[in-house]
Amino acid sequence: MPITIGQAFPPAPTFTEQHIPDLTGKVAIVTGSTSGVGFEAATILYSKNATVYLAARSSEKGAKAIAAIKDSPECTGSRGSLRFLSLDPSDLSSIKASAHEVLQRETRLDILIHNAAVMRPPTGAQPSCVQGHDLEMGTNCLGPFTFNDLLLPLLRHTAANAPKDSVRVVWLSSIIAHGVVRGGFVFDDQTGAPAVLKDALENYMQSKVGNDHILSLSVNPGLMKTELQRHAPPIQSTIMGLVFKPPRYASQNGTFIIPWGRFGPIPHHIKKALSPKSEGGTGAAEKFWDWCEKETAAYR
């Protein structure tokens, strides 16, 4: 079965929230958690008694999400805690303050889920991040890269005093075997930065490819009907509503994880991009990492 078919129409999940142990005392951050996959992930973590930060732009949506989670039947009796964290991945200059708030309040961080993303912003919408980067590349890659780096000392501190592989960073990817440009990235020869492609969906797929005893996982959440597709044409949105699964399926995913909670293969051309030229690869991942380091240095 082709990789994309197997991920678009996966078998029934063998790992669900019922298999997640008690998380009392654990601290988690879920970005983009006021709706969709992030909301469901935050709900599950809170139901297991974790302290969960809902990181998002809107405090109003954050308050509504927290109230909805507390009112959900599965969270009745939870001994966890829900906290809103203001976070705007499209503005690198604001991220340090968000990370600082966590560092001031917490002595540990067990789970960090990079879920927030934008896809195919409509023509005429904000075309770039505050710092001038392409909106999808900035929000989906540079923002999470900066946030992750600022929280890395706390993650490492937690990992040093926790069971192996219990501290986790999860990067929400996509069906990277389909739709992404060959090799994962197209670089601008003049600037050395990832090129802004003509097709907004190609820009999105390129940005999702870019995503110390800390288990770091890249997860394809599956074909989910969420607010991510809010800018899709009406006919496309209708089809998605018929075919795509609700976001609760994606929030259960636990290398590269594919729906539903399975370890999956990384496409060969992406594997080559992950390896340096000295090992027969293209060196694209190393080049992209260096670019992220350079672009975010002033904000970390």
Automatic annotation (TrEMBL):
InterPro entries membership: NAD(P)-bd_dom_sf, SDR_fam
Pfam families noted in UniProt: adh_short
Key word Oxidoreductase present: yes
Residue stretches in coiled coil: none
Keyword check for RNA-binding: no
Superkingdom of origin: Eukaryota
Key words, A-Z: NADP, Oxidoreductase
PANTHER family noted in UniProt: RETINOL DEHYDROGENASE, SHORT-CHAIN DEHYDROGENASE-RELATED
Protein family per UniProt: Belongs to the short-chain dehydrogenases/reductases (SDR) family.
Name of the molecule in the record: NAD(P)-binding protein
